[in-house]
Design a protein that fits this description.
Blueprint: H1 2-10, H2 12-17, H3 31-39, E1 67-69, H4 96-107, H5 115-140, H6 155-158, H7 165-182, H8 196-216, H9 223-239, H10 253-256, E2 269-273, H11 284-287, E3 292-294, H12 296-300, H13 318-322, H14 327-332, E4 333-334, E5 363-365, E6 371-373, E7 385-386, E8 405-409, H15 410-423, H16 429-434, H17 436-442, H18 472-484, H19 491-497, H20 558-563
Antiparallel strand pairs: 1-3, 2-8, 4-7, 5-6
Helix pairs in contact: 4-5, 5-7, 7-8, 8-9, 8-15, 8-19, 9-15, 15-18
Length: 576
């Protein structure tokens, strides 16, 4: 059946010959077939990713100011070039999700299911089509829109011009709204399948992104998207079907949420990417998130425990720097100087003798009393070794670890609601209490955000890098988003929609390695003139720049421009 679905979805000759042993558009589709077909959409979700290397959602922030990989990220550094081919546009696989969705829509009228079920499956198809185009628009802006199954003779679509961004996103809004109105709730505990709740969460994500992008990039017509983001998030909140995970208490609930091997049934997780240990797995846990690190700039953004701004003091002593801060900092960074697994609380029993942090080139004394190298996979570039999605017992499975990946969390919906209402000038204390302040309460942080917070001192704020004014309330909601969604792949999209690309020009630094922290220095540690780790110091060709005229969108591959003369290169990239 899976082979038949794959062929139906990608081979036009196969459709035309209508073999007796295959299901085509003319076949009377049943619920069983429709369920099997819809399963094919989930392979497009980026979770932990398979194979080896720094891949998957945990490493998406490598192209931002949050994380620093072993080798500098060219997108983050502003060194991306126009590709000759591929580039997210030029391969058949880049459009497979669209074809799957449109094929499903084309075949539904001939299916043998009830009208209510047809609407549900139509909602699923439009859910995935909306997500597909949302991702494409974030990359390229204008994108060719197609609401029907593309055939080889559809020259107008295959060799036509791109559809303007605003028209595409208006159609995306129509699609995702249909999905929200017609998809069933189903069993929300089976969160590796999409349902009405998933559609509402995705709608909030899509509409907040497009609304703020239109606002800060001066495109206009942003209010309809901000209102839809607000309404979708509120409908999901009011349904009371989801809630924040608190099962491990304030000391570790946030941290533990990401380390469940089996994530079905966890009420905060609206959608997860499912894996099966030893059968369909990944190698992420083997890495311990090594050869990577959180940046000093990111760590500085965590507030003090009492809600005041962190002033950079005590940063010559890592333990002191992490103390009396927003508890999510201690639950995100691994600190175990005498050796141990990622342990947000002191009561956890150490399993490993490797001390953390361990900078590249570190050594440690093993249980037999012999000194040995820590190894790159257990080291960090910056000294701030992030600990999300690591479970020691799963490391034994090599590249077949079965830990699921959280894709859409209820926490994100709360943040979407807070930001959308603030952007619309409607944010009340009640809104903040059920969103931002509930997230803080989950980790035991009593300091509440109010509708009129004190502005962060200019000396520590990045708002001077923006070409517009930002209210203290929105600045704090953005900070909350950066903290709560750390290392989960949101930061780059957020910077792009906020027109905050200049944040990527900030120098990437690690912890300060003077004073008490000097003991962590190795022969491979690169240090700047102020005593902070400068992991790319002296690297050939390294610099940081963000070109406002082009870097908010990705370039169209040269080969695609040659194959279709009606395509036009994105602004700025046409000069390369």
């Amino acid at each position: 059946m899976i082979s038949i679905i794959a062929l139906v979805g990608c081979n036009d000759d196969f459709l035309e010959t209508k073999p007796k042993d295959a299901l085509t558009l003319e076949t009377k589709w049943t619920n069983t077939f429709l369920d099997l077909y819809c399963n094919g959409f989930y392979t497009e979700i980026v979770g932990h990713d398979g194979g080896w290397g720094q891949k998957g959602y945990l490493y998406e922030d490598d192209k931002t100011d949050n994380q620093a990989p072993f080798r500098f990220n060219k997108i983050s550094a502003g060194q991306q070039i126009v590709p000759d081919s591929k580039g997210g546009w030029g391969e058949v696989k880049n459009w497979a999700q669209l074809r799957k969705a449109n094929f499903l829509l084309a075949g539904l009228p001939n299916s043998v299911v009830t009208d209510v079920e047809k609407k549900h499956y139509e909602g699923i198809a439009k859910f995935w089509r909306a997500w597909f185009y949302f991702k494409k628009v974030k990359q390229f802006g204008d994108v060719t829109w197609s609401s029907k199954l593309i055939e080889p003779n559809d020259k107008e679509i295959l060799f036509g011009a791109r559809t303007p961004r605003k028209d595409v996103m208006d159609s995306v809004l129509t699609d995702i709204t249909f999905a929200c109105e017609n998809m069933k709730w189903g069993d929300i505990k089976k969160n590796d399948y999409v349902n009405k709740g998933t559609a509402l969460a995705l709608k909030a994500r899509i509409c907040l992104h497009e609304g703020t992008f239109r606002k800060y990039h001066g495109l206009g017509d942003e209010e309809i998207f901000l209102q839809n983001a607000r309404d979708a998030a509120k409908e999901l909140i009011d349904s009371k079907k989801f809630s924040l995970y608190r099962g491990s208490g304030v000391e570790s609930s946030y941290h533990d949420l990401f380390k469940f091997v089996e994530m079905s049934g966890i009420n905060e997780l609206i959608l997860v990417r499912r894996y099966i240990t030893g059968i369909y797995g990944h190698a992420r846990l083997r890495y311990r998130n090594g050869k990577d690190g959180l940046t000093k700039d990111f760590v500085n953004d965590y507030l003090n425990l009492d809600g005041t701004f962190y002033d950079g003091s005590n940063d010559e002593n890592l333990e002191a720097e992490l103390s009396n801060r927003d508890p999510r900092l201690r639950q995100t960074i691994w600190f175990s100087p005498k050796g141990g697994v990622f342990a947000p609380i002191a009561s956890e029993v150490p399993i490993s003798t490797i001390p953390v942090p361990s900078l590249l080139g570190s050594k440690f004394v093993n249980p037999k009393g012999k000194e040995q190298n820590v190894g790159a996979l257990f080291s960090t570039t910056t000294g701030y070794h992030f600990s999300l999605s690591y479970e020691f017992n799963e490391t034994n499975y090599g590249d077949m670890g079965g830990m699921d990946a959280p894709i859409i969390r209820y926490a994100e919906v709360l943040l979407d609601y807070a930001e959308a209402t603030a952007e619309l000038g409607e944010c009340t204390q009640e809104v903040l209490d059920v969103t931002v302040n509930d997230l803080r309460a989950r980790v035991g942080m009593d300091a509440k955000l109010t509708v009129a917070p004190i502005a962060e001192p200019a000396a520590t704020s990045d708002r001077s890098l923006l070409d517009y004014s930002l209210s203290p309330l929105l600045e704090e909601i953005r900070r909350e988003r950066r903290v709560e969604l750390a290392a989960q792949g949101f930061r780059y999209d957020d910077l792009m929609r906020w027109k905050a690309g200049k944040f990527l020009e900030k120098p990437l630094r690690g912890m300060k390695v003077t004073g008490m922290n000097a003991k962590y220095v190795t022969s491979k540690t690169k240090i700047d003139e102020n005593g902070y780790i400068d992991m790319y110091k002296g690297d050939v060709g390294y610099s940081r720049t963000f070109d406002e005229s082009k870097h908010y969108l990705k370039p169209i591959p040269r080969q695609s421009l040659v194959e279709n003369p009606n395509l036009k290169q994105n602004p700025g990239w046409d000069k390369e």
